[in-house]
Amino acid sequence: MELRTLRYFVAVAEELHFGRAAARLHMSQPPLSRAIRQLEADLGAVLFHRSPAGVFLTPAGTVLLQEARTLLGQAERARARVAAASGAASLTVGLLGDSADPDVRRLAGAYRRRHPDVEVRIRETGLADPTCGLHAGHVDVALTRAPFDGTGLTVRTLRTDAVGALLRADDPLAGRPALRLADLADRSWFTFPEGTDPLWQAYWNGGATREGPVVRAVQECRQAVLWNGTVGVTLLAHDPGAGLIVVPLVDMEPSRAVVAWTAGDGNPLIRSFAALAAAAFQGGADRPRTGTHG
C-alpha cells in the first residue's frame, strides 16, 4: 500500500463522501474512486458500503482507518526528524489574534512535544488579511477564520463558534435576549480597510455593505464600539471587556476556525501541524471560547 493511497482512503473515510474527499485532495472524483476500488481489490476486502443514502465504513474499513492514521503519522514524524537533522526545521505560523485561545495553547504544547527541535516562528496579523500572510508567502501555515479567498490554499475547519452583536453596555439593544441583523440595519458598523478580502468583509458585516470607522485590529473594534456606539460582530463567548456586551445574533452562520496552508505544499511539518491542530481543537470542543474578532 502506498502512503498516497492511504491518504486517499483516510480522506474518504473522514468525509464519508467521495465528492468532498476529492475536493479536499484537490483532485477529480473518478481517479479517487478508482484508487479506492484498487485498494479494496489489493486488500481483498470491501472498505465502504455505498448506497443512495451515503457512504459508510465497513468493519474492515474501520480497522484500516485506525491503521492508516498510525502509518501516516509515523511517516510524518520520520520526515520531520529528517528535516530536523538536515538543519531545515522551522515553521512560520500565522495567527489571527487567537493566541489566547485555549485550543491554540493546547496545540502549542502538542506541537512542542511532537517536534521539540523545530523552531516555530509566530506572525500575528491584523484583520485586513484573514490568510495571515499565506497568499503573500509570509507564513507556512495559518490559524485563522473563514470565509476568505481560498484560491491555491488547503483549508480545514477546526471548530465553529456562535457569534453575536458587539454593543456598548448602555446601548438600547443591549438588554435584548437575542437580535437579528435587521435590528442593526440603520447603525454604524466598524469596517475593514479598502482591499480587504470581500468574502471576509461580507461575513463580519452581516452580508451587507456597511458604513463606519475603519479598523485593523481587534482592540480597534472594541474601541470603535466603546467611543462611538458603533456595532459589529464578534464571537458570542468572547468577553468583550468593561463597558461592552455581546448579544446573540440568531440569523448569522457560526464563525469557522480553520487551519490553512498552500495547496500542494508537501512540508511534513505543515501536515503534522494540521493534524495536531485538528486533535487539539476537537479535544477542547466543550471549553468556553475566547474571541478572535471584535
Structure commentary:
The structure is a single chain. The chain has 294 residues and is an alpha+beta fold. The chain has helices at 3-15, 18-25, 29-43, 59-85, 102-114, 198-204, 218-228, 268-283; strands spanning 48-51, 54-57, 90-95, 119-124, 141-146, 153-161, 163-168, 232-235, 244-248, 255-262. Helix content is 37%, strand content 20%. A hairpin with a 2-residue loop joins strand 1 and strand 2 (54-57). The longest helix is centred in the first third of the chain and has 27 residues, at 59-85.
How is the main sheet built? 5 strands, mixed
**Mean pLDDT rating:** 88
The DSSP helix count reads: 8
Structural class determined from secondary elements: alpha+beta
Provide the gyration radius in Å.
22 Å
Enumerate the strands of the largest sheet in spatial order, edge to edge or round the barrel.
Answer: 4-3-5-10-6
State the shape. Answer: globular
How big a fraction of the residues is strand? 15-25%
Amino-to-carboxy terminus distance: 48 Å
Unreliable segments of 5+ consecutive residues: 286-292
Task: Spell the H/E element sequence.
Answer: HHHEEHEHEEEEHHEEEH
Task: Work out the helicity level.
Answer: 25-40%
Identify the notable features of this structure and list them briefly:
294 residues, 37% helix, five-stranded mixed sheet, single chain, three-stranded antiparallel sheet, alpha+beta
Question: How is this structure best summarized?
Answer:
With 294 residues, the protein is of the alpha+beta class. It has helices spanning 3-15, 18-25, 29-43, 59-85, 102-114, 198-204, 218-228, 268-283, and strands at residues 48-51, 54-57, 90-95, 119-124, 141-146, 153-161, 163-168, 232-235, 244-248, 255-262.
